[in-house]
Amino acid sequence: MELNNKTIVITGVSKGIGLALAKQLIAKGAIVFGLGRNQAEDFKHPNFHFINCDVRNSQSVQTSFTKIYETKTEIHGLINNAGLGYFGYLEDMPESQWDEMFQTNINGMFYCIKQVLPQMKKDGFGHIINIASTAALEGMAMVSGYCATKWAVKGLSESLFKEVRDFGVKVTCVYPGSTKTDFFRNSPGIQPHDYMLMPEDVALLMVQALEMPQNIHTVNLEIRPLQVRGPKK
Ligand SMILES: NC(=O)c1ccc[n+]([C@@H]2O[C@H](COP(=O)([O-])OP(=O)(O)OC[C@H]3O[C@@H](n4cnc5c(N)ncnc54)[C@H](OP(=O)(O)O)[C@@H]3O)[C@@H](O)[C@H]2O)c1
After folding, report:
1. Whose CA is nearest to atom 20 of ligand 1?
2. 1 lies in a domain?
3. Fewest CB within 10 A of the end CB: N or C in the chain?
4. SS (H, E, C) the chain
5. Pairing status of strand 48-52 against strand 31-36
6. Candidates 33, 37, 156: which one to mutate for ligand 1, based on the most atoms within 8 Å of Cβ?
7. What is the per-residue pLDDT for 232?
């Protein structure tokens, strides 16, 4: 899809991968609606519209999409990016952290998809991109809760792809490896470093997936840093 003048919604745009993607899409001429609890102070553009939204709250999500559909008849892309992870021993994890991860990483995704899917099916086009993680591809010690949410994202995405492909709607699931963002603030022992992916790298591959011609579809996008520990010595 040619991105110029297309309407793309991204959840979680205050920093990290979501912000990097918003910037790249704006540079391509897209009209971006960013749904989030916080706005990046230093990123303003006439084609970037921030809407205050907590994706855990279905009412907040519904109100946000109502606002978008008041000005746009079509949403060409939805990127479900908002997410977070708490790491640690399962028995030590407070229920509040477990709930926050599930509410944000999977419930929020469900609420957003429900808002765009009927219109996308009617239009016969639309691209939904869900950000999972390589934590959706293998179990990891101390990451059980986060892995569980991202395995759910994988299951939702694979199933929905099969459900809506005949309506012309694309569903891509993205599996980034370690990316240098604020994500690791809740995972003691992991320090972000320069051999990780950069948020711009993940964003770039999503832009490429969005730009593919209609009959070419990136179903899964697994992205890893080639040498996460640096070049072999
Ligand atoms: N970094 C990695 O290594 C990595 C690897 C694989 C997958 N991922 C996934 O990539 C996605 C983006 O993460 P990131 O690395 O860019 O982390 P990040 O820098 O912490 O950014 C996360 C974004 O999600 C937003 N968010 C969180 N809870 C929200 C809510 N309830 N409502 C609306 N927005 C909310 C945050 O906004 P606030 O300012 O409101 O908190 C922030 O903009 C997540 O789904 C994460 O699981 C990350």
Report:
1. 183
2. no
3. C
4. CCCCCCEEEEECCCCHHHHHHHHHHHHCCCEEEEEECCCCCCCCCCCEEEEECCCCCHHHHHHHHHHHHHHCCCCCEEEECCCCCCCCCHHHCCHHHHHHHHHHHHHHHHHHHHHHHHHHHHHCCCEEEEECCHHHCCCCCCCHHHHHHHHHHHHHHHHHHHHHHHHCCEEEEEEECCECCHHHHHCCCCCCCCCCECHHHHHHHHHHHHHCCCCCCCCEEEECCCCCCCCCC
5. parallel
6. 37
7. 87
Look at the chain and report how many structural domains it folds into.
1
Residues acting as catalytic residues = 146
In a domain, 232, yes or no: no
Strand partners, 80: 130
230 domain-assigned: no
Give the integer Cα–Cα distance in Å for 25 and 204.
Answer: 9
Mean pLDDT, the chain, whole residue set: 97
The answer as to whether 228 is a domain residue is: no
CA nearest to 136, candidates 123, 122, 147, 124: 147
The residues that bridge with 78 in the sheet, in sequence order, are: 9, 128
Q: What CATH number should be reported for the domain holding residue 15?
A: 3.40.50.720
Of the two residues 187 and 140, the one the predictor is more confident about is 140
Q: Which residue among 50, 63, 84, 87 has the greatest number of ligand 1 atoms within 8 angstroms of its CB, and so is best to mutate?
A: 84
Instruction: Give pTM, 2 decimals.
Output: 0.98
With 0-12 / 13-18 / 19 or more C-beta atoms within 10 angstroms meaning exposed / middle / buried, residue 155 is middle
